[in-house]
Predict the structure.
Amino acid sequence: MTRHVVAPASEIAPGSRKLVDVAGRSIGIFNLGGEFFALSNRCPHQGGSLCLGEQVGLVLSEEPGQYRYSRPGEMLRCPWHGWEFDIRTGQSWCDPKRMRTKSYPVTVEPGEALAKGPYQADIFPVSIEADYVVIDL
Amino acid sequence: MVALGGTGEQGLGAAMKPDERAERRRKAADRLMEFRDLGPIDCDLHPPTPRMAELLPYLDPHWREVMLSRGIDGLELASYPPGSPLSARPEWRGPGGRPGGDLALIQREVLDRWGTRRAILNCLHGSMAMFSEDMGAALARAVNDWIANEWLDRDARFAASILVPARSPELAVAEIERRAEDARFVQVLLLAGSELPLGRRVHWPIYAAAERFSLPVGIHAGSAFHQPMTSVGWPSYVVEDYVSQATAFQHQLLSLIGEGVFTKFPRLKVVLIESGVTWLPGFLWRANKEWRALRPEVPWVDRSPIEIVREHVRLTLQPLDSPPDASGLAAVIGQLGSDDLLLFSSDYPHWQWDGEEVLPKALPEALRSRIALDNPRQTYPRLGVRLGKECVS
Amino acid sequence: MSGAVLERSRTDAAGLGVVDCDIHPMLRSERALFPYLARRWRDELETFGLRTRNPFVGSFAFPKATPALSRRDCWPPAGGPPGSDLAFMRAQYLDSYEIETGILQTLIPSGKDQRNPAFGAALCRALNDWQIAEWTEPEPRLKAAITVPAEDAEASVAEIERSAPKGDFVSIFLTTRTTEPLGRKRYWPIFAAAERTGLALGIHTGGSNGLPMTPGGWPSFYFEEHMANAFAMQPLLASLVLEGVFEAFPKLRVVLIEGGFAWAPALAWRLDKHWARMRPEVPHVRHPPSFYIRRQVWFATQPVEEPPDRADLRTLIDWIGWERLVFASDYPHWDMDDPQRAFKLALSEGETQAVFRDNARLAYRLP
Ligand code: FES
């Protein structure tokens, strides 16, 4: 497993996301209220660019006509056929056990620690003053 | 490769040697015998539709006078023109060609012939299609009472569906409540060609009442013709209309699912009667796909349509609209993915098949008793049919 | 239930040269049609706008799942709605998927569904000229379908005769929902013109005819409408068969677009069975309905069927016949199918060639 430094943490503000290419893989990094998550950009259905999809809330219902809205921005709807995926787990809503997009462990590391290595930071120089998003591949 | 075409089992046997033919006949006789021994439950049997003269004794004085003074009669549903080949097999017509004949004919041709344990009468009367809510309710009451007196009282093997004026859920519920005391009424009957999609909330009082009394809601082919039979306009021919009934069922099933009827009424069962069967797998695949994409619009649909249908929906067997070969039928049955879905129906007197063998021989062996007996008795708890060990416990 | 695994489901259409029977071009705006409209109809469009049997000025009766009913990644960077930018369509779709031929289906705006019939006919003419000038001439991989004001057969025939000689048309465009079932005699002049010109008849799901969306009235949700729209293919095909269209026009080639195909075998079985019983009512239908369907009807694949057990997909296509399916993507709409990944089934080379290219070449008489 290699650890990849993919972006300065400040570049992905809460509620935003960034698409990165790491070791030939397209991966979406999401910041949900300060927590970072990384998902494969490939939808398990027909391969749509999942991480370009809309971030929406989760709507559930106990009874027709009632809409229980929760977790705004934490579900990802595929830009193609609209299947919903949970950004926290990569699981689809429709078939969570069998249908999921790969999710990768993410940490935020201080530049100081990163300077000691071993990390892949191919894309930009690391400064010891800043924090960085690191994913394990 | 077997493709689209084919007309059931027609033509088979043409090129057979005599001893093969005898063997085939013997097997058919065996199957029939086994079927009779099961004591099947026939989930769709049509008594002749009563004419107004037959209903007059069951109408109150006001409505009797209305019917007579306005000369109201001829309320058979136009979906089934009485003379049409589909409306009655030739030997299942009574005097004057009346589809269904009389009690004696039904006893001989259906109940005795197949050793029928119970048979559910679905009377296709136009009270269901009446624009006037009040007249519809009065006629539905009369038909239900006529059924009770003229049929249920005369042969204990009969059960029946409750006709309701679907245009008025309020009056429909009143009628359900009135007749539900009689355990021989085991289902509420609606038409596939309704005025509003059957899932719409306006119909829910009917479903609440049905659930309360353990009555499945039976949706039968046919239309009030308050709408065209298809979304592409009015078909020209009876056969076109009839073929399109299967599509009407698809729309209604989708409406029931999408509106969340089964979320709201978790104990409700819906029986699609005379709907055809073979369209269901393709429908479910598509509905599943649609749900995955559009679920947030109908968040109360909290399971895939496939799961919902398996739990809540049943279909009567005839007309089976089967593929031309036995393996094709087995494939379709396999695609249904459940042995619970199909209920035996003769669809008497409609001309859906020929000969004696009401259960197509291509049906997988393991399924025959499920269809003939187990599934119907589980679907219709009010029939009170218990078997073997259930009786002991 | 499927746990679709992408790698295994890949259909190797790459390198084949795909014929896509359903690509939707879109106007940048309604004004993009002005160069193709006479002054009188430009004024009509500006003053009264498009008027169909629909409650809203600027929305569909059932609001769609996505803006412009499109994939969210199909909005051209240079502006304009999805499907309106040829350069972007080339880059995002035609080039990267090696599309050999793409057949345009101009769904919006609909000339056929205009309440003012003369305006509808003018709109059809303009859309046809626009397709040639802005799509098929600059991009030879694209072919077009002649859109016609179908409720007026005479005007439709005139438009077919005007446009067909232009060469880039391979089909006549109709939608499923007409004011009467499409098999009715009032539409036959269109079929005769199709036969005469050798153009296929492409019938795309949709259209508005003012009739309720279901035989039980109007549904509530897009979830229902989207699927109900496709159900319309069944009575449509029943009408064509039972009215005797295929008997009267034995050379007519019909492609049913965006209805999927899982419904087709069950409908054919049902038609055959009840036709046999009811033949006296339709003596003009001399053969079993499935005979005509197999002879003259093709089914566009999208939205592709996704049975939980993938083997069922093969059984299904075996029933229909591998020669009767033609690939369609529906690009750029949200419910589109990816040419390389839509079929969750390993296809043989011959099957791939048939479904993704050769069947369509036959259905549309492509060179
Ligand atoms: S490709 Fe993502 S939902 Fe279909």
User: Anything to note?
Assistant: Residues 10 and 131 of chain A are 7 Å apart (CA to CA). Residues A 43, 45-48, 78, 80-81, 83 surround FE2/S2 (inorganic) cluster (CB under 6 Å). The helical segments of chain A are 111-115. Chain A has one domain: 3-136.
